[in-house]
User: What shape does this take?
Amino acid sequence: MAVKQFGKEWTKRNTLKSILLFLVHCLIYLLIAAGLLLGDKLGTIVEFLSAQGRNYLYALFCVILLFVILYFYFFFENRNMLQSGKNIALLFTILDLNLLLSCLVGYKFAVYARPVALVALLSFMLIGRKDAIFMNVISALLIFVIDTFAVLEVSNQECYSSLIIAFSAGMIAIYCASKARTRMSVILIGLFIVLPIDSVILLLEIPTLIGENAAVGELAGLERIVTQMGYGLFGGVMSTVLFIAILPLFEYSFNCLTAFRLRELTSSDAKILKKLKEEAPGTYNHSMVVAQLAEAGAAAIGESVDMARAAAMYHDVGKLHYPEHFTENQGDYNLHDELTPELSADIIRSHAKDGYTLIRNHHLPEFLADIALEHHGTLPIRYFYAKALKLTDGELNIEDYSYMGPKPQTKLAAIIMICDASEAAVRAVGARTPEAAEKAIRAVIEERMDLEQFSECDVTMADLTKIRQALVNALTGVYHHRIQYPSIKYRRTENGTKGENE
Assistant: This one.
């Protein structure tokens, strides 16, 4: 029996496919580990495995067990990550990269110099905080297992301390990164990551100060502590430096959304937005106002403000195909006066599909394309339907004058639908008081509820109430009352500036 997870159908075929992909990536991880750990022992591989085979077999069992636990976590907590092979590849690419860096830096340089918070930072930005916490735990345990059972050069003290360091540094990185809004601020997180790293190193290395010869022992021990803490400082800072360097590759390779990429997409220099501003300035200005409203609506119900803003700015980009056929880009002349209602309706409703196609062709995030397609749902195009009714005596099929859908599938799509219509409705109201704005927005929401436009998303009545209240406050601020300034003409005189009533 098929079930739905996050709006997508999940079947037995999905389960088998995800398990197979997990096994393939698990095998790749094990091959990478084998190459790193046994690459220099190929000449004596038989003798080495006969001596250490039991430890390697135990490490293999533990690694497989951890991957099984990882699969079950996503199966029950975030099945959407298993829906796509690209998402599974993303998870394992992060873990593979961590394995490579941990082995190359830890075994060739120093264990404490590893970029221990890299998995936590990448997972947080690319997947989410909850999943990043679990990924941090799994990555720390994976490296601990390899250190303990597969590497003879790492002492037990270093194994356990590296486990504690990786876990604590990753957790601090996750919670600090939630406040980061610029790439430079992420670099500063490295300084906070260093605190748990060097604290653990200091506590575990203090016993080295005690030696048979106190003076010599203290000197050697102090030098070792400073050296190891220096490695810890390097590892903490390098975690954020590598994160900043690698993140864009993940963003574009896996088409992932981050706060940084969303800001780049909503910049005035973004290619599509720049074109929209030049060729359809009315639509661009409308989108900017809708973006402000969407931010307020998203904040009111706990949705991502950055995603809401981006979706609002791109929701009408399909109008670039026929910008002059939309009211906000027209002057005194209306091109639709020369067209039949049927053709006009086709042009108007095509902007939703055109927006979807344009966004996908530019390889932008899928959620932007989905909201561009869904933001009118299956609503009728009222103006041209009414115009057609006046020109015919027979019955009309209202679907011929309606948007093709689908209806909003997410709360963000519902927010954009409401904000898009509310901005136009309030702008059309003569008296822009809070009461008039509230009445107009309530009418917009109730009409869409009557037409069952929210039936396919999980928006609730409580959400709609909060969105309405937020939009009333935002729109009365945008279209606030202005005083009538007196008509005065200013002119310069020898004694200064002088004003006269016109």
User: Anything to note?
Assistant: The chain is about 70% helix and 5% strand. The chain has two domains: 3-256, 260-478.
